[in-house]
Fold this protein.
Amino acid sequence: MVKEIAHSLREYKRASIATPVLVTFEVVLEVFIPFVIAMLVNEIGGGCGLDVILKYGAALVVMAGLSLAFGVCSGITCASASSGLAKNLRKDMFYKIQSYSFRNIDKFNVSSLITRMTTDVTNVQTAYMLLIRLVVRSPLMLVSSFVMAFVMGGSLAWVFVAVVPLLAVGLIIIVVKTIPLFHRAFRKYDNLNNSIQENVKAAREVKAYVREDYEQAKFGRASHDLRKDFQKAERILAFNQPIMQFCLYVVMCAVLTYGSYLVIGSSGAAGGIGVGELSSILTYGFMMLNSLMMLSMAFTMIAMAGESGRRIVEVLEEESTLVNPEHPVYEIKDGSIDFEGVSFKYSPSAERNALSDIDLHIASGETIGIIGGTGSSKSTLVQLVSRLYDVTEGCVKVGGVDVRQYDLQTLRNGVAMVLQKNVLFSGTIAENLRWGDKNATQEEIEAAARLACADEFIERFPQKYETYIEQGGANVSGGQKQRLCIARALLKKPKILILDDSTSAVDTHTDAKIRKAMREYIPETTKIIIAQRTASVEDADRIIVMDGGTVNDIGTHAELIKRNAIYREVYTSQNKEGHDLED
């Protein structure tokens, strides 16, 4: 885990190395300050002159100034290294997620990925900041202070050693007890964020059904569960401070008692010490115990960040289930599509297939309609064409080549999909349309908009193609959003165009105009139209009837009306005025 996270340091390695070096100089200077003070106190006790006091005073000022300078510099490099690590981690995770297949994304829900890129990265950033500064400083300060205390106080320094095992045992117990609680709490963080995301996304439905009280109660339960785990962890962590304070006071009492005895007997007894040495030993005692306290706090934070780090590494190590072949094909010959013995299921552990035994041949430039009931796997079928998923059995060919042999970018540039859920991004209309072709000219954008009948409403906007679209297309209607998405797909100039129920929010007259424009202006493009209404597909070259993940029938509108019960039932239910079925 450490190796994977450390890989994200990159250009911040120098700052990471410089921080411990600067901290080392800072600690050395801090440790020598009490030593010089002890010498000064002893000189004053011996009746020294002003010149001696000024000499020691100047030395102390220089040492304190240098220590401060090293401390400030280490703080700057530490902040640079930790914030840089966080930046790179977020970038690496985001880039990794972009490479995921739909199957990978299904493994991590959206709220969990957001938590990992925000809260978890922040925890790792804080832990890394403590690691390269505090975790370096505290042990150095602890060891250096003990050595100096031993040099100055001899046997008196062993008082500090006696308390270290007690503190170490307390620290280990605290860390061991809190790690499982943090592990559980972070899973509940995902649930809490999922509740928030779902509520905000479905705000209109919540208000329409007056379910605010229900959503508040659901959020309250998730928040309460999270609070309980963090409360348990905080209760355990709360023992850290009292244990440290208890040990501090015990040690100070022991040092003062034994040290006073040594000071009093210093005039004639062997091993005696002066007042300066005793004051310095007390200072070193505070330094040691403060270092232990800081170290325990750092280890607690690092223990919590360990769970965050594990979750981050899960994202970084997840490999896409869809990868380029060793020698990919970079050119699509034409828009023909072949399904050969295709079966598919979303999960290897699924009991039944979503698609079974599909055999289809679609000629280049052909217009194909697909119709079927809800859950008949119409969308699943077309998602295999652009390799959003890989088949479980058989193969799908585009232009006579298995889609798994293509370079993924080449394949997806050649296959344009307008999905059921139309997504627009915050930005102008022109910027949204250029997702289809980032180099598209204004003339090309307007031509695509005319084909999708989007120019009708765009021209009514005061700023026309520079009209700003809010996040998710919140300031345009469902039909307008669909037409913009179709125009965006047309700008790709694809060999295959798939419309997955993407004109459902458009009136039948506009729907017919869009289909007519596509027949006339992009006849060489293979068009697959998934629809719920027969009017959207009845003029297709062929219509595929899906039922239960299989192809129930294939034919023209007239043929299916005569021989296919499923198609005839759908047609009849949508044409209640009783058209002559024989026509």
Remarks:
- The chain has a mean pLDDT of 83.
